[in-house]
Every structure is written in structure tokens, then in C-alpha cells.
Write the C-alpha cells for this entry.
Amino acid sequence: MTLFRILLALIFVAISGYTAVVVAHHGINLFPAFFGDLAKLMWPGQFNLDFMCMLLLSALWVSYRHRFRPIGLLLGLGAFVGGVSFLSVYLLIESFRARGDVNALLLGDHHQP
């Protein structure tokens, strides 16, 4: 679990640094670029569609972990919009809350000790 937590921290630092550089050079203009690539029906758009589907699955999993209660839906929205920036922090926090139990980490409120 320690290596997983280190990986999550490294992912968060890497994506935060990369995002900071992109925003500094290009501004916060993500959605027109993202959906513009989708509309072109080329490889960058295919990657964006694939990525958006992964975000949707991530959001559904986070919401499921919380039994689709309002907080779970809110966290799911965070997963969909925030991507790995959200998910790395969420999983890091939840790994400590689950006390390293992978079943509890994966299943959340559905876990039966």
C-alpha cells in the first residue's frame, strides 16, 4: 500500500506541475480545445473520447462507493471533472481511511468486514 500511496502522490505532483505549465503558456481554455478535437474526428479527438469514457467510469465507481448518496454523487462529479488530479487525492485519503484494506478501498460503503 505504501508504494501505491507514493505513486498517487507522484501522479498528483506530476499532473499539477504539467497543468501549471500549460495554464501559464495557454491559459485556462480546456473545454474549447477538448471538444474541438472531438469535433474534428481525428486521433486527438479519439483519445479525448476514450479519456472522457474513463472519467465517466471513474465517476460511477466513486459514486457507487458511496451508494449514490448525495455526497457520493458530488464526489463522482469531482472525479468526472477533476480527472486524476481529483482521483489521486481521493484514493490517497481513502487508502488511509480504509487502513490499507484493499477491499475496503475498492468497495467503500459496500465492504463487509
Residues 2-110 form one domain. The chain has a mean pLDDT of 94. Residues 70-97 form the longest helix (28 residues).
